Amino acid sequence: MELIYLAVFIILVTVAIGLVLTHLKAKDEGPLPYQAKKYFFSHSEQEFLRILNESIDRQRYLIFPKVRLADFIEVTVKGKEYQGWWNKIRSKHVDFLIWDVQQNKIALAIELDGRSHGSEKMQERDEFVNRLYEQIHMKLERVSVGTEFSKIASEIHASLNTLK
Questions:
Q1: Of 28, 68, 83, 111, which one has the greatest count of Cβ atoms within 10 A?
Q2: pTM to 2 decimal places
């Protein structure tokens, strides 16, 4: 009797493994469920980038858009606390980073604040991000959508010139 149970168990496991492998193989066939987004930048981001590019010294500075915080900020705690702090930055990004080619470092981070920044959730996020930039001793420039971008870009250009 035990032999029959063992045989049935082996048959069930074999069928289950076959079904799982068939299911996994079927997922690899055919088109993937992705497509390119229609827009990489919002209208405001595109406009600000264009104006900023016209304003700064492009021989000295490079503008990197949409950079993950985790690409230039590292978590300093180890052990059990590490993952919690990592999770707070891993999917956040800054709208623009300005890289100083001569100094080989980030000169400025820029965040465009649109209407969504008025919500309580975004205000909590912004407060955390502000504290984060203070902690890493990096200047964060917040630009409100709807302000005169050319004026802000000129001010950024002037502040970058003081870094020389």
A1: 111
A2: 0.77
